[in-house]
Amino acid sequence: MSTPVSTPVTTARRRRAARKAILGLLGVLGFLATWQLIPMMGIIDERFLPSATTTLARLGELVLDLEFWRNVRRTLTYWALGLAIAVVLATALGTIVGLVPFLRRATHTSVEFLRPIPSVALIPLVILIFGIRTPAALVIIVYASFWQLFIQVLYGVGDVDAVARDTAKSFRLPRSHRLRYLILPTALPYFMTGVRLAAAVALILAVTAEMTIGVPGLGNVINLARNAGDSPTLYAVVVVTGLLGLVINLVFRAVERRVLGWHQSVRGEVAL
Amino acid sequence: MSTPADTMKSGPRGRSRGTRTVIAVLYAVAVPVVLIVAWLIWAGVSPQIFFPSPIAIAEAFVNTWLGPSLTNDVIPSLARLGVAIVLAITIGIAAGTVIGLTPWLRELLEPVLEFFRAIPPPVLIPVFTLLMGITTSMKLAVIVAGAFWPVLLNTIDGVRSTDSVMTETAQSFRLTRAERLRYLVLPSAAPRIMTGVRQTLSIALIMMVISEMFNTSSGLGYRIVYFQRNYLIAEMWSGIVLLGLVGVFLAAVFTFVERRVLRWYHGIKETERA
User: What is the dihedral of CA A141, A144, A150, A156, to 10 degrees?
Assistant: First the structure.
């Protein structure tokens, strides 16, 4: 890429970016103001909807509390472990099933039946089998995020261009080369999309598992706050889970851009 | 996206249509049948407490869900789910179209929407319980509030990326706003919207189950937790199977509707590939 020169195009683009940032900031401020005004004007009782300042003040107190950070760590540990297991399983199985037409045909109905089963349906079962312990939460997280990635890998591996595949065959590329230079580049965008989706789903299920199974973490804090009628803490932790989700989304989108810098879908966006 | 299964259905050359159908059916049912038989044998050889035999589960299914529970738990739950899905999709498409077509509004709301989308939907349940009490409308609201984000954001994206040449053509032909919406904007956004709908369906189902696990005394989610707490293992399994069937049913309806709505789109994709 050439060095940026201050042409009219780039100034226009910069102005647009500035406008976007300012409007976005206004949007956030407007949202906070609305949140502040609704309980202040008595539309909803302060007990049920604490104002933005009350909630953020409580968030400020939480940030200074070590136990809060331990809970963040617990939630993120479930998330990371679950996601890692799901990624390994889904990549391995997805590649094998995707590359072997026989397996692909034979497993099609089973996959289509197992995939839509909501993982929360398994919560009672895992509680019985594992008790209120980490593996119970992990099973739920892995089950939900596995399918997101598995399907993507399956499609990705199957999407290899027919001409490219035949060319590779005629040139007698060994299997390892075909994997490295043909299948990997084709499947990579699918894989990255799958990982991004799986990461978001894994966080949802980590918090859900903490809420419904009762393993320690942010979801459990939400439960305790609700039972104690401590609505500022409840709202503060909800905000924290939203921020965690936001950071995870942004990070994975950035990684996707990085890894797929060479790919048409990303390059096209940059060139515009 | 065309499913790979479509292209795979054309079996090996030189075989009659009948043989091919038989082979396709064999492929479809072989693995599930083998799994169920293996489970049957396993349950017969060494009975497991937590994994009752499929026959016991099937019996429990009939006894549990086809009795009074059908009208007390299953139908109300599924009715809530259906209404919530319709509401979520309608609100998502309507709000998404408005936001997507108004650049300043989109830029104003983008960061806020990004944040709300990132909140794990189940944490909304305690919040809504606090705000609305435990009522049917709260259960509906919480499913809608958790599930409409994918449709909303995909509609915004889809509407926004309407082909500019087509927009200008529509303008020069003086298509009215309603006509442009009907014949240009919504169709061109449809593939994105359907992607959103697919995610919305699975989140809605999850939200329905979890919302019933808390502080209620009826509904599918409540029943399944009740069975677990009372160690009614086969009944609990039958509940899992029922939820699975609901999920499969939703997925099937989705595939059917998607084929219909996006027939033109799949057609274009096919020709591009050929």
Answer: -110
A38, A100, A120: best to mutate for the B interface, most B CBs within 10 A? A120
Judge if B149 and B232 occupy the same domain. yes
The CA-atom distances, in angstroms, between A8 and each of A3, A5, A107, B74 are 15, 9, 56, 63
CA atoms within 13 A on the CB side of A253: 8
Distance in angstroms (rounded) separating the CA atoms of residues A204 and A190: 21
Residue A190 CA from chain centroid, whole number: 15
Query: Cα separation of A176 and A197, whole Å?
Result: 28
pLDDT band at A240; cut points 50, 70, 90: very high
Q: Which residues of A touch B244 (CB under 8 A)?
A: 113-114, 116-117, 121
What does the alpha-carbon distance between residue B120 and residue A206 come to, in Å, rounded to a whole number? 9
Helix/strand/coil (H/E/C) assignment for every residue in A62-113: HHCCHHHHHHHHHHHHHHHHHHHHHHHHHHHHHHHHHHCHHHHHHHHHHHHH
Q: Which structural domain range is residue A42 located in?
A: 1-49
Cβ atoms of A200 and A152 within 8 Å: the answer is no
Interface contact B251-A223, CB threshold 8 A: no
pLDDT beyond 70 at A127: yes
CB proximity under 8 Å: A 72-91 to B? none
- Number of other CB atoms surrounding residue B63 within 10 Å: 13
pLDDT value of residue A6: 57
Q: Which CATH number goes with the domain that contains B251?
A: 1.10.3720.10
The answer to whether residues B82 and B207 belong to one domain is yes
Contact across the interface for A129 and B127, Cβ inside 8 Å: no
Q: Quick one: average pLDDT of B189-214?
A: 89
Number of domains present in the structure of chain B:
2
A64 and A192 together in one domain: yes
Question: Of A28, A109, A245, which has the smallest distance from its Cβ to B118's Cβ?
Answer: A245
| pLDDT tens digits, B124-176 | 999 998 888 888 888 899 999 999 999 999 999 888 888 888 888 888 888 88
Instruction: Please state, in angstroms and rounded to a whole number, the distance separating the CA atoms of residues A63 and A243.
Output: 13
Maximum pairwise Cα distance, chain A = 76
- Shared domain for A36 and A79, answered yes or no, is no
Q: Among A80-94, B162-176, B238-252, name the one with the lowest average pLDDT.
A: B162-176
Q: Please check whether residues B36 and B59 belong to one and the same domain.
A: no
The whole-angstrom distance between residue B179's C-alpha and the CA centroid of its chain comes to 30
Mention every residue, 6+ apart, whose C-beta is less than 8 A from residue A173: A181, A182
Say if residue B39 is in the same domain as residue B60. no
Domain that holds residue B40: 4-45
Same-domain check for residues A213 and A149: yes
Which positions ≥6 away from B100 have C-beta within 8 Å?
Answer: B106, B155, B156, B157, B158, B159, B160, B189
**A49 contact residues in B (CB cutoff 8 A):** 130-131
